Amino acid sequence: MSAVAGEPMASARPDARGAGRLLFAATVLILVVWVLLPIWLLLVNALSSPAEVTSFPKRIWPSFDMGSLSFFYNFGGVGRALWNSVLVAGLTMILSIGVGAPAGYALSRFDFPGKETFRFLVLMTRAFPLPLLALPLAVMFIRTGLDDTVLGLALVHTTLALPFAVLITFSLFSGIPVELEEAAWTLGCTRAQAFGKVVLPLALPGIAASAVFAFTISWNEVFAAAVLTIENRTLTAFLLQNISTSPLHLRFAGGAALVVPALIFIFAVRKYLFAMWGIANR
Amino acid sequence: MRQKALPYLLLAPATLFLCVFFLYPFLLVAWESITRNGVVTLDNFRTMGGHWKFPLTFWNTLALAGVVVPVQLALALAMASIVSNMNRGRSAVLYIFAIPLGISDLAAGLIWLAIFEQSGFLNSWLSMLGVTERPIMFLGYQSTLSLFAAVAIAEIWRATAIMMVILVAGMGLIPKEYGEAAEVFGAGPWKRFTRVTLPLLRPSLQTALILRVILAFEVFAVVAALAGNNFPVLMGETYHWQFALRDRGVAAAFAMVILGISIAFTVMLLYLLRVPREARI
Q1: Are A31 and B105 within 8 A, CB to CB?
Q2: H helices within A47-114, ranges in order?
């Protein structure tokens, strides 16, 4: 339809068409540079020696000196903070999928009273500034002995990731026809067997993607991590704590250590990113 | 009987979790904000409001959101339209546009610190081009305007992706026939965008704006990385009262302010961008 309408215009005004294309391509290029260049500049700083980081003027190509990075890695507490970040994010991933996926499955397969209430509860979490939860929970955790622990922080991060896990798994399971499950039942499978043998293999890639997403949410979170940990700091909390006192090269190396894994995560889930957010609309 | 109980069993962990770690803490923080040593009082709010920094903090946060969110909306709409009109290279461009979505606000602050600090890249380029003779201090406490601009640019860079992704998903839901019909009747690209795409995009616009406005009121680490204490914002002050001054009551009062403006804006956006039931697609 649009091709038919477009053809006569193209022959009538080839110049305008070409100019329009060029403008379009230029806009895309500018936007791509706008997104990528700042990340590149941080990496340039991280891959330069400490002296180069504070030198002036700067070059746009790194010297691939590992001085900043090795200083960062050997700086007291960094290794542990990195490990804590991985632990908290891993726990968040397990908790949010473990708790969220059953709920997503229930929402996709059953009609029952209270369904809308639950969906409202999940959607409500979005109208609230969730990192603030860390304030009251700090007190609650001291009473229960969860203060300054990896588990305590992972529980808060799970609250951030859970709504996404529920909505994403809901749409994943909705995309798998009920008929497949019913066929397995008629062939003698129990409900659990049918789920394990038919639904789960089909849903697994999507579940893995939402797990990575939960990991990223926890990996990137700053406020709750900074409020809830003192000894067992995560990487973000560690960097924030030392942000006004640490030298520039330490900050940039730390920033790079935060960014590079995030880039890999986003690349890993790129196929699902849009499906996820598309549904998160409903 | 078992069939009826199953959905509730499956929902129970998530519901319990949200009650313990979402509803209950919010009641707790609300209670903490209006009590001091167990007595109900407005002292926390008085201490907060009476502090010389409070008006500055409050208006900084609102002004930042007021500048950042509209720019992001326009940029996200442009990016989403571009991606929706692309054939070749669509997925690569989409991935690149979405990258900041996965980047921590702290990392985003550090990324722009590399550009705006005194020996940073912006100063390097300016001096190479011969515009300036000496490096400018963009992030000093006297240069409020450039400090504000730096924080705003970093926020725009970081959080446009989240809106863009929601809008791309929303544009994918609009039937192509609508735009084609408008084209047949002679509507140009701009007219099709304003008369067909935008009105049909309303639910996605609503989601994107609510999400983004709330995140804008939560701005914290970007400011901490770029401006330190030179540019106070609500979330930063909350952290300061909780952690440095060890006054949980006042921190809770700050939290209630953030919560209050978040809910007010959510309700406003729900009303302004409401979609009549019969107009849903």
Answers
A1: no
A2: 50-54, 67-74, 78-109
